[in-house]
Amino acid sequence: MAAGYGELLRTPHAARLLIGTLLGRLPNATAALAVLLFARAEGGSYALAGGLSAVYGAANAVGQPLLGRAVDRLGQPRVMLPAAVASALGMVLFAVVGLEPLPVAYAAMLIAGLFTPPLEGGLRALWPSVLRREDQVHAAYALDAVAQEVMFAVGPLLVTLTVALWSEAAALLVINVIGVAGALSVVVSRPSRQWRSAPREAHWLGALRSPGLLVLLGSFFFIGLALGAIAVAAVAYADEHGGGAVSSALLSALGVGALAGGIVYGGRTWPGAPERRLRLLVAALALGYLPLMLVPGVVTMTVLAGVAGVFLAPALACAFVVVDRHAPSGTVTEAFSWLVTTFVVGNAAGTAVAGPAVQLGGVAPGFAVPAAGGVAALAVLLAAQRFLLDGPRPVVQPTAYRTPGEPGAENDRNHAAEPGFRARHQA
Fold first, then answer.
1. Distance in angstroms (rounded) separating the CA atoms of residues 98 and 169
2. Where do transmembrane segments lie in this chain (predicted)?
């Protein structure tokens, strides 16, 4: 298993692209915490900090698919780097101006969220052109999902450390400087510079005209909802079982479970269609959420949280493969960006639903929300499975770099021999 990941990371450009993307995404991963700490340091209320974060999140949800579509049309460097700089400047404006005048603070959040570069979708579009074999692409998607867990664990620690050493404003500036540096590292790389999307049909719906992709987005909205609800329910559980350290333990266990599951999943090749495998993974994920409603003692609850996280990273990794298979020609970055947006919106919805559930019924109803979200995610896949199973467009397998005009780019439906990946390029 370790040898397989080692071979993947030794492939030219692979480690650089993965690390650069993770660094480039740090501002987005830490925005909620960094904005909250800065707003509180400036004398703002929690409600104001929440409003600023909400503006950032809403703008981010709008901007990701729009910028993803621009990347598919114009290439990565012409979109990613200017967007990263614009987003960072929005945060710099916020750090300099503070909360007064308030409209400027909200405008800064709007700019920072709207122009967050779609590095996540861009990396997944690059993998098939960088790696040599399809099994390596599968492993890269799993490693990508695992790296997200690491980033969301390390990012907040970096913010709090910067605040302790300097200030809340310095944390905003440092995180965004790192983000621009990460984006720059990606876009000046050879794979990013040479990547070109396949020809696309002019259509206002873009990637959303794929029925299979819509099914996947519907399912992962509910998975995002489940994760958002778990965060709220974990805090409510901690209030009754010893305080904030307990909620941290539960969420850490969830992350450790996801790490372990992602590493194991990406360490081997899985037979069969990924669409069918995704149903099984989501079913296992939903099943893992159900015991949380029992709200046992802290030790047992921590173990259950770890088990509940095991299938998260594998489900994400498998979803990346399914997105790649169902995205219409020339829309792969946009399609991946829609997955990010849907997941984030679902997460916010889960937070909004779990709060009243805890308020009205207590901790158990709070954990019933993620359980319901997992069941709903599976129900979407089962109810609309024909769109997933009938939808993938067959193409030839990707290889490493090709010169202009060389065969092997995205084929049309009637000429390719077997299913494969379509997120590739012509150099």
1. 9
2. 17-39, 45-67, 169-192, 213-238, 244-266, 278-295, 301-323, 335-358, 364-384
Our separate counts of H helices and E strands in the chain read 17, 0
DSSP state of 197: P
**pLDDT tens by residue, 394-404:** 443 333 333 33
DSSP 45: -
Cα 57 to chain centroid, rounded: 13
Pull the structure tokens for residue 102: 């308030």
- 228: tokens are 């958002």
Domains delineated in the chain: 1-197 (1.20.1250.20), 206-392 (1.20.1250.20)
C-alpha–C-alpha distance, residues 141 and 131, integer Å: 11
What length does the chain have?
427
Percent of the residues in the chain that have a pLDDT greater than 70, as a whole number:
89
Q: Report the distance separating Cα 107 and Cα 103, nearest Å.
A: 6
Q: In 267-362, which residue ranges form alpha helices assigned H by DSSP? A: 274-289, 298-309, 312-326, 332-361
Tell me what pLDDT residue 203 has: 67
Q: Report the C-alpha gap between 421 and 325 in whole angstroms.
A: 6
Residue 416 has pLDDT above 80, yes or no: no
Global pTM value:
0.79
Give yes or no for residue 426 having a pLDDT over 70: no
Give me the amino acid identity at 336: F
Comparing C-alpha atoms, which of 217, 209, 229 is closest to residue 384?
217
**Range in 170-174, 264-268, 283-287 with the lowest mean pLDDT:** 264-268
Asked whether the beta carbons of 175 and 26 are under 8 A apart, the reply is yes
- Whose CA is closest to 61, among 346, 318, 328? 346
In this structure, how many other beta carbons lie within 10 angstroms of the beta carbon of residue 383? 12
Write the secondary structure of 342-389 as one string of H (helix), E (strand) and C (coil).
HHHHHHHHHHHHHHHHHHHHCHHHHHHHHHHHHHHHHHHHHHCHHHHH
CA pair distance 367, 377, nearest whole angstrom:
16
d(Cα 15, Cα 21) in Å, to the nearest integer?
Answer: 10
pLDDT tops 70 at residue 412: no
Q: Are 27 and 49 in contact (CB under 8 A)?
A: no
> Cα–Cα distance between 11 and 132 in angstroms, integer?
8
Tokens of 114: 């709207």
CA–CA separation, 278 and 280 (whole Å)? 5
Positive or negative torsion for Cα 60, 68, 346, 282:
negative
